[in-house]
Write a structure and sequence with these properties.
alpha/beta; six-stranded parallel beta sheet; 14 strands; binds uridine-5'-diphosphate-glucuronic acid
Length: 437
């Protein structure tokens, strides 16, 4: 099937390559010429395991191409809109400029019977509004098909999704034809038995934000328990294990630490709150403001632990920050708790050196005032305090002997509860976790 993918960021680039890998003929379109040049060469413009391999193989088959020219969408039967919906500046609401622009600019190239498929995360009500534009300006229809991929596992999540959601037009004929088209797009996943939920626009839009709101709430719940554990001497990691054995609760997303970040969870809960308020139902999701506050307090907590470890005087003290990405297996530093901790310690006058296996270039672009080291030894050299804020495998596996050859102090603040406290204390280190004694 011929398809276009508009927007080649973390979502669109992976979607385009994965669709081509599945046998479709795909044109990926983006306004960023540098990104298109790199994708056309089979190079991923960001770190995503497995993406370079499928880019290279799909380009070699001739089924995958990239361009900055939107007119090349003409002739495709399906047009995925995968552009960003970032948080508006100084507001909680989502910025829909890119989604509206993509649809407006695409309309002249649509043919009768085409299907425009929204993938971006949008406030509920957006699809209905955009569908009016699409049907008024062309003979095409609109469907909303939210994406649940996780960065770091994006290729696997796209090729083997755990569920598919179709938000379909209300008109029966349009619904039947959109369903048939989407079934062809996702033929492989459907043949593998992937659960499918067919619904209306509003439900499809809400499924996406509800899923992210639930995940954010789960993380903030365990971080709230960490706050209680900190004043009672309890151990939040054991608490998470114990409640996680209850299959109704489950252990996933009960990792207490410096909290959630990234391009999705933080902005999605804020946009959801703003949209609910617009709809006169602000109280229904008022708890998400608390979820956000708990999450941000964890960053304060980590910064305070470092400052306390430095005797309350961080000025010119050497601190090593291990991790900058918002989570492992990603180079994404959007709203990253790790980068935030590094920036705030630097702001307090500490002499910070940060390291990360993948996220230094993005961090340097965002915060050129920080010092970075590619090599772990260089990052921790002469450090009085080491703070672990992204749980990359190489940091999880650190042993005290790996660091004490370089450091001047022996204090480790474990902002992800990723290390073994007994081992570090036995080696003479002061170990401080989050919500664990
Ligand atoms: C999230 C969702 O998990 C995806 O399903 C969704 O498709 C995506 O947003 C999106 O909206 O596009 P992602 O942002 O890649 O995916 O990252 P997650 O794996 O959800 O992690 C988010 C943050 O939560 C990270 O900072 C991570 O370190 C933190 N986290 C996660 C915790 O602090 N504790 C945990 O137990 C789990």
């Amino acid at each position: 099937m011929k398809m276009s993918v508009i927007g080649c960021g973390y979502l669109g680039a992976v979607h385009a390559a994965s669709m081509a890998e599945l046998g479709h003929e795909v044109i990926g379109i983006d306004v960023d010429a540098a990104k298109i040049a790199s994708l056309s060469n089979g190079e991923a413009p960001f770190f995503e395991p497995g993406l370079p391999e499928i880019l290279t193989s799909a380009i070699a088959t001739g089924r995958l191409r990239f361009t900055t020219d939107l007119s090349q969408a003409k002739g495709a039967a399906v047009h995925f809109v995968a552009v960003g919906t970032p948080q508006r500046k100084d507001e909680n609401a989502a910025d829909l400029t890119y989604v509206d622009a993509a649809i407006d600019e695409l309309i002249p190239y649509l043919s009768d019977g085409d299907l425009v498929v929204g993938k971006s995360t949008v406030p509920v009500g957006t699809a209905e509004r955009l569908a009016l534009k699409v049907t008024a300006g062309s003979g095409a229809q609109l469907a909303w098909n939210p994406e649940f991929l996780r960065e770091g596992f994006a290729v696997k999540d796209t090729i083997y999704p755990d569920r598919l959601v179709y938000g379909l037009p209300s008109d029966d004929a349009a619904k039947a034809s959109a369903t048939a088209t989407l079934n062809e797009v996702y033929a492989t996943a459907l043949a593998n038995g992937t659960p499918l939920v067919m619904t209306d626009y509003a439900t499809a839009e809400l499924v996406k934000v509800a899923a992210n709101a639930f995940l954010a709430t789960k993380i903030s719940f365990i971080n709230a328990m960490a706050e209680i554990a900190e004043v009672t001497g309890a151990d939040v990691t054991q608490l998470a294990d114990a409640i996680g054995f209850d299959a109704r609760i489950g252990r996933k997303f009960l990792g207490a630490g410096v909290g959630f970040g990234g391009g999705c969870l933080p902005k999605d809960i804020r946009a959801f709150t703003a949209r609910a308020e617009e709809l006169g139902r602000g109280e229904s999701v008022a708890f998400l403001k608390e979820v956000d506050k708990i999450n941000l307090r964890r960053r304060d907590r980590v910064v305070n632990l470092v400052v306390n470890a430095l005797g309350g005087k961080p000025f010119e003290k050497k601190v090593a920050v291990l991790g900058l990405a918002f989570k492992p297996f990603s180079d994404d530093v959007r709203d990253s708790p790790a980068l935030d901790v590094a920036v705030r310690l630097h702001g307090l006058g500490a002499n910070v050196t940060a390291t990360d296996p993948e996220a230094i270039p993005n961090s340097r672009r965002a915060h050129p005032q920080l010092s970075f080291a590619d090599d772990l030894g260089d990052a921790v050299r002469d450090a009085e305090v080491v703070v672990l804020v992204t749980e990359w495998t190489e940091f999880r596996q650190l042993k005290p002997a790996d660091l004490e050859r370089f450091t001047s102090g022996r204090t480790v603040i474990d902002g992800r509860n990723a290390l073994n406290p007994t081992e570090w204390r036995a080696a003479g280190w002061t170990y401080v976790g989050l919500g664990r004694p």
